[in-house]
Design a protein that fits this description.
By secondary structure, this protein is α/β, with parallel strands linked by helices. It contains 5 helices and 11 strands, in the order E-E-E-H-E-H-E-E-H-E-H-E-E-H-E-E. The protein has a 7-stranded mixed β-sheet with strand order 5-4-3-6-7-11-10. Strands 1, 2, 8 and 9 form a 4-stranded mixed β-sheet that branches. Helix 1 links the parallel strand 3 and strand 4. Bound molecules: S-adenosylmethionine. S-adenosylmethionine binds next to strand 4.
Length: 184
């Protein structure tokens, strides 16, 4: 059986403007560990997959942990980030749990910086999976990766994250196609 994919337009994001106060908790920070590359030892990256954490470059802390059960006591972090990771938490109930956990460990007045994709309903109809081709720049270094996943049973996308964020006790301040999204 042939599967049908939906290709998002290429995304380009420059990250140099993000001088975020630490310690920064980076949720789903395995893979290329982009936020760790950006902010170094200010970052604790958590990911529930050891293989993803082992892939990331050294230079920041890494902990194997499920974002639905953060093993930190309350209100510790001034900054939370999720760089194209919540799109891999497709179920609404899990997204709500993650936002509630984020709220629990975020300092009052802190901020949650979230980059994600908007999954528009219409063009995706009839597609089995989506592909996002992402290029990001850090201090003049240009890098990139491809993100893809199956669409079956998926409730991701800004509007879904918006609803989940609200239920998890976090208000989304602004929403933009393909992020970044800002939560506080
Ligand atoms: C596409 S990667 C994110 C890219 C990464 N932020 C980077 O900088 O390269 C998505 C990550 O989210 C992680 N993830 C998915 N569900 C998770 C969960 N419940 N808890 C922690 N990490 C999760 C996956 O293991 C994967 O490493």
């Amino acid at each position: 059986m042939d599967l049908v994919g939906y290709d998002f337009p290429q995304l380009e994001i420059s990250l140099d403007e993000y001088a975020l106060p630490g310690p920064v908790l980076d949720i789903g920070g395995g893979g290329e560990g982009v936020i760790g590359q950006l902010l170094g030892w200010d970052v604790i990256a958590i990911d529930h997959r050891l293989d993803e954490l082992l892939e990331t470059p050294d230079g920041h802390d890494k902990v194997m942990m499920d974002a639905r059960r953060l093993g930190f006591s309350g209100q510790f972090f001034p900054t939370l980030t999720a760089f194209f990771s919540l799109m891999y938490i497709p179920k609404r109930e899990d997204q709500i749990t993650v936002f509630a956990e984020a709220q629990r460990v975020l300092q009052p007045g802190g901020s949650f910086h979230l980059w994600d994709v908007t999954l528009p309903a219409e063009p995706l109809e009839g597609s089995d999976y989506f592909v996002v081709s992402l290029r990001y720049g850090i201090r003049g270094k240009d890098a990139g990766h491809g993100l893809w996943d199956a669409l079956a049973g998926r409730e991701a996308g800004c509007s879904s994250l918006h609803r989940s964020g609200g239920k998890g006790g976090i208000d989304l301040c602004s929403v933009g196609y393909a992020g970044p999204l800002f939560l506080s």
